């Protein structure tokens, strides 16, 4: 039972990046999936979450209009599409399965010129 993030990296301000979170070992399509981030010296922040069928998504105000969460239940994967990236988006991004208390190891996103 695990979730594994990928897709992080270094991107210039204004750029885009897509993160993936691949799940295994549980019935992915039955669970809400969340994305979180934590910047150095700051508290962890929930970026957003998506319902099991992908019909409802909620976002933090800090990313609304720039980030999009989606999921592909056939691939057991949830995505975080990030556009208009800012230096303050620099953080370790992790996916989470709230009802299972399951966390990935995280992937680093650095926004810098």
Please tell me about this protein's structure:
This protein has no helices and eleven strands. It is mainly β and 113 residues long. The strands form two sheets. Strands 2, 4, 5, 6, 9, 10 and 11 form a seven-stranded mixed β-sheet that branches. The protein is globular, with a radius of gyration of 13 Å. The N and C termini lie far apart (38 Å). The mean pLDDT is 97.
List the helices and strands and how they pair.
Elements lengths: L1 E5 L2 E3 L5 E8 L8 E6 L6 E6 L6 E3 L7 E6 L4 E6 L8 E7 L4 E2 L3 E5 L2
Parallel strand pairs: 2-11
Antiparallel strand pairs: 1-3, 3-8, 4-5, 4-9, 5-6, 7-8, 9-10, 9-11
Q: Can I get a quick summary?
A:
The chain is mainly β and 113 residues long.
Give short descriptive properties of this protein.
113 residues, globular, mainly beta, four-stranded antiparallel sheet
Helix fraction by DSSP (H/I, runs of at least 4): under 10%
Round the mean pLDDT to the nearest integer and report it: 97
Quaternary structure annotation? single chain
Largest sheet: 7 strands, mixed
By secondary-structure content and strand pairing, the structural class works out as mainly beta
């Amino acid at each position: 039972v695990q979730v594994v993030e990928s897709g992080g990296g270094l991107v210039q301000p204004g750029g885009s990046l897509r993160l993936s979170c691949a799940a295994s070992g549980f019935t992915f399509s039955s669970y809400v999936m969340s994305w979180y981030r934590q910047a150095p010296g700051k508290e962890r922040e929930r970026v957003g979450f998506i319902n099991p069928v992908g019909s409802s998504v909620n976002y933090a105000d800090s990313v609304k209009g720039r980030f999009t969460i989606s999921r592909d239940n056939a691939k057991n994967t949830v995505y975080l599409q990030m556009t208009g990236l800012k230096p303050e988006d620099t953080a370790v991004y992790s996916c989470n399965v709230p009802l299972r208390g399951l966390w990935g190891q995280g992937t680093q996103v650095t926004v810098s010129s």
